[in-house]
Structures are given as C-alpha cells and as structure tokens.
Design brief:
mainly alpha
C-alpha cells in the first residue's frame, strides 16, 4: 500500500473532501438558531462519523508492513469505540429520560402483553 502513489493520492483527495464537508457542516451548525446541544444535532453526529473516516483513512494511508501490529491495534480501537459508545448510550437510564417521546418507541419499543399477541 505504501508504495502505490495512486492509493496515496486517492486517500489524500478523500481526506480533503471530508474536511471540506466538515467545514460546510460547521457553517450549517453556526447558522442554525436552535437551542439544541451540539451533540444532539444531526450535523454534529455526521461530523463525528466523518472524523472516524478520516482517522481510518490516515491509518490506512500510513500503514506499512513494518508497523502492521500497531496499525491493527489502532484499527481495532477505532472500530470498537463507536460500538461501545452506542451500547453505553442505549443502556443509559439518564439518556432514556432525555429522549423525545417520538424516539422512545423506535429505540425502546413498548412491551406487548400476552393479550395483544
């Protein structure tokens, strides 16, 4: 991977495109006049996902056969972090209390009784 100039150029262009889109998302956030917290906005969550993509691309772009173990460990951590965060949020009682009512039925469906079945 390290010796392929096409791969290196494509990852660099992809990273640049992601940063341009992140700047656009930040502009949208700054122009919005809502009272939402930053992490509750859809654009902010998109920025978080894009940052994971950038980290993954940089990791892949700079990996060589001499540092494959370090790259593999970092890759596993990058993969596990969103999954663990999602599990933590899904199981958090504090988070459930702040979820809007229309979202509660999607994330936490009501229990069905035997008479409804």
């Amino acid at each position: 991977m390290d010796s392929n100039p096409i791969w290196r150029m494509m990852t660099l262009l992809h990273i640049i495109a992601i940063f341009v889109f992140i700047m656009y998302q930040i502009k949208i956030i700054m122009d919005s006049s809502t009272d939402e917290r930053f992490y509750e906005m859809e654009e902010a969550r998109e920025i978080g996902g894009l940052l994971f993509a950038v980290i993954w691309l940089v990791l892949c772009r700079n990996s060589t056969m001499s540092n494959y173990r370090r790259t593999a460990y970092i890759g596993m951590v990058i993969t596990a972090v969103p999954i663990l965060l999602w599990i933590g949020i899904a199981l958090s009682e504090d988070y459930r209390a702040g979820v809007p009512e229309h979202c509660k039925t999607v994330m936490y469906p009501p229990e069905k009784s035997n008479t409804e079945l």
